[in-house]
Amino acid sequence: MGEYNRSLAKNLLYPNLPAFTQALVKGLQVPDGFTSDSGLKKEILSALTVLMKNVPKQMSQYLGEVLGPVWQTLTTSAETYVNTTVNAREDADDPVDSDGEVLGFENLVFTIFEFVHVLVETTKHKQLVKRGVADLVYYLLLYMQMTEDQIENWSSNPDAFVEDEDEDSFAYSVRISAQDLLLVLCQELAEECGQGLVVAVGRHLERAAGQRAAGDPAWWKTHEAVMLALGSVRDLILDQVAKGHLQFDVTHFIQSVVLADLDPNFSPFLAGRALWCGSRFGQAVTEEMLDRFLQATVSALNHSPSPIIRVSGVRAVWGFCDYLKGSGHPGALQAYLPAILDGLVNLATQASSEVLSLILETCCTVVSVDASFTAANVGRISTLCLAVFIKANNDPVLVALVQDVVRELCASPACSSTLQTKFIPTLASILNASTDKVPPGMQAVALDMLEVMVRSSTPPLGDQLRTLNTDDNSTLQNGGECLRAYVSVAPDQVVAYRDTEGRSGLEYVVQVATQLLSPATSEHTATFVGRLITALIRRTGDHLGDNLDLLLRAVLSKLQGAESLTVVQNLVLVYAQLVHSQLEGVLTFLAGVPGPSGQSALHFVFTQWCSKQHLFFGAYEEKVSAVALAKVLEHGVTANDARLQGIVVQGDQVFSPEAARTRTRSQRLAHPEQWTQVPVLVKIFKLLINELANAIDSNMAKDDDEESEEECWEDDGEEAQANGDASLASAFAPSSAFPGYDADTVDDEEDPDAMNDPLYSLDLQQYLTTFITTFAQHPAFTAFVPHLNPHEQEVLQGIGVQC
User: Where is the Importin-9 central HEAT repeats domain positioned along the sequence (predicted)?
Assistant: First the structure.
């Protein structure tokens, strides 16, 4: 409720907070029995977590009373969890809710971890956690132990083992939750957590030694959890040891614990974890120890009967390759690379999806270690990739991993030719087959793969232009993107290419572009066509001749029927890109072509552009559009271009008291929205001011530290009154105002053509500030000022321009 009205918390919650908190604390202290159980304690902890997160200032005075019972719950729950779940030596007495559903004991543990998580990330409470971090980490390691259920499941299902133990896993368990909390502690309390972890590791190793001496078969779980913890925070440990802030002999630990645990007779899970841990600490081992680890890894891949050890061997290969390649000493791997590749290929032939994903990810690293070895074995690697592609072309994850390996191979001239020899005939047969002979979507995936090969290879490329008749949207889009790759990477080859009938490659590309722009095809086929046309103009413009006029008319025709913002933006940006390179030419073309409403196409395009500019997305696309508009404004003012000055578009919306009230549909139809009418150059200036405001907001959001949750409801009365009206200053918030959205992370930003454009790295705020301050010195500026609304005037005053 505080998100909507901060005063509600002050009036309704704060007066009742003391009694409510005391009742919650008392509920935590009641032993499990008739009146309390883990389900009730979970709900109590959830309530306390919400309070600690949202009203930390008010909860500070009760924290002393809360921490005692929470700590007691954490410690007593650990013993119960180990006995009932980790080692399954006792039956869990899980409570049942009113609906008859069993409330697992794990839910209470999750809630405890969430409570601690909130404390650590709250500045006011972080110091309290810091004091007991060593004891806290000790108990976290208890919770990180493998359970008997996990062992049983993973032993029979290696895919589940790979998925659950992946650092980016979507699975959730007490083990993963404890690991996540450890990572948070290391991030928020780095120095204290490093020291606390070393102390906890020592205690656990002593505990495991006692278990082992007493004949407890579960002793190995403690070692496994210790190695998991240390390997997960490797960077922190090595950094603090190197700086002298932490006394921990990593090499001795590897020698005395990790190498000793490689014996598979103890447990395949322990041996596998030891391999993984050794690969994580490659920089801390001697050459002799490294050699022992590599021998054990090769043996695990090729000879171990346990799928767990073989999968762990794959993980270890990735770790060792990544370390040795990064350290500049890949030579240590050379003697083992043939056996490693044998093991990976043999395991891949019998692996299912998750294990296969891990193998391909590891292959991508292996092929980057030694260029000569990769070139000598490119045939085997290409055959593996092609087999996976054919078998799993409907699996986007596996296809993406195959593409990663293909990129690595194509980047090497020694491998590219062999790879193309393997792949191209298969891709060609897929593309040439009738749609009823191949699985749905396979042709689109084949085109995507061909695009990857083209983008990753060094020209000259193989002549692989082919005709493909289809009406499938995905296939059309991917085909257009594939041809764009050809045009961008090897334009001379596209121009020089001739088929048996004498048709040039450029004719084929233009034919595809016009098909994508045809009014008869779906609107969504034109989603990326603007990029293709832009690439054609940039890279082959001198060879287009009359085709340029044909393409620009087709873009105009498609734009007239486009409704989707993505398509409109993509098509408008074709003209925006031309403004950068051929301003006079594009204005002349548009002015000489009739638009859909009887006026010129210039009027139509700028009406569309100006009405949609504030909705455009993608940092690069916004830069292209904004800079193009600035060039148009500069040209229109300095050249006194009558073609532009005669265009009138919508300015600002006019709001009336009647319009502000809720109206029926018939009333809205009878009294539609009203807008001011302004010259197009004025509208462009207003849009540039809006782009500047958005750029300023975006940069401020990046520079400022993320607002702490603890300030959410503090000082709410005065703050709400002071800022309440200011929050309404702008009717539309910039994209940076939305959590989780960052225009710089849009997928389009990774487009190689965009990254090669100087505009990609342009500081838009600086550019627009310079442009507008310079324009303000022009005599024509005074004619623009009366059209500016208060918000636009405020933005100008913020950069020193007086209106």
Answer: 133-376
Residue among 34, 28, 33 nearest 46 (CA): 28
Closest C-alpha among 158, 167, 363, 368 to residue 272: 158
Tens-place pLDDT, residues 8-41: 777 778 778 888 888 888 888 888 777 777 788 8
Cα separation, 461 vs 485, whole angstroms:
11
Half-sphere CA count of 290, side-chain side, radius 13 A: 20
pLDDT of residue 467: 52
564-583 pLDDT per residue, tens: 999 999 999 999 999 999 99
SS3 assignment, position 304: coil
Amino acid, res. 603: H
Distance CA 172, CA 159 (A): 15
Three-class HEC string of 3-45 = CCCHHHHHHHHHHHHHHHHHHHHHHHHCCCCCCCCHHHHHHHH
DSSP designation for 247: -
Per-residue model confidence as pLDDT tens digits over 181-206: 999 999 999 999 999 999 999 999 99
3-class state of residue 675 by DSSP: strand
In sequence order, what are the residues at sequence separation of 6 or more whose Cβ sits closer than 8 angstroms to the Cβ of residue 747?
none
In whole angstroms, what is the distance from residue 190 CA to residue 258 CA?
24
Q: Give which of 320, 338, 309 is closest to 280, Cα–Cα.
A: 320
CA-based torsion, 685, 687, 692, 697: positive or negative = positive
In 3D space, the residue among 468, 488, 475 whose CA is nearest the CA of residue 532 turns out to be 488
* CA–CA separation, 557 and 516 (whole Å): 12
Question: At residue 553, does pLDDT exceed 60?
Answer: yes
Rg of the chain over all Cα atoms, to the nearest angstrom: 32
Task: Kindly give, in sequence order, each residue whose CB lies less than 8 Å from that of residue 510, ignoring residues fewer than 6 positions away.
Answer: 536, 544, 547, 550, 551
Q: Is 356 exposed, middle or buried (0-12, 13-18, 19+ CB in 10 A)?
A: buried
Q: Could you give the CA distance from residue 615 to residue 224 in angstroms, rounded to a whole number?
A: 52
DSSP 747: G
3-state secondary structure 148-181: HHHHHHHHHCHHHHHHHHCCCCCCCCHHHHHHHH
**pTM of the full predicted structure?**
0.81
DSSP 618: S
- Look at residue 709 in the predicted model and tell me its pLDDT: 39
Torsions phi, psi for 169 (to 5 deg): -65, 145
Q: Which residues, including other chains, have CB under 8 Å from residue 444's CB and lie 6 or more apart?
A: 472, 474, 475, 477, 478
- Tokens matching residue 128: 């309290």
Residue linked to tokens 């690379």: 337
Give Cα 493 distance to the centre of its chain.
35
Tens of pLDDT along 295-319? 999 999 999 999 999 999 999 999 9
Please report the sign of the dihedral spanned by the C-alpha atoms of residue 135, residue 137, residue 138, residue 139: positive
Which of these, 165, 276, 158, lies nearest to 223 by C-alpha position?
A: 276
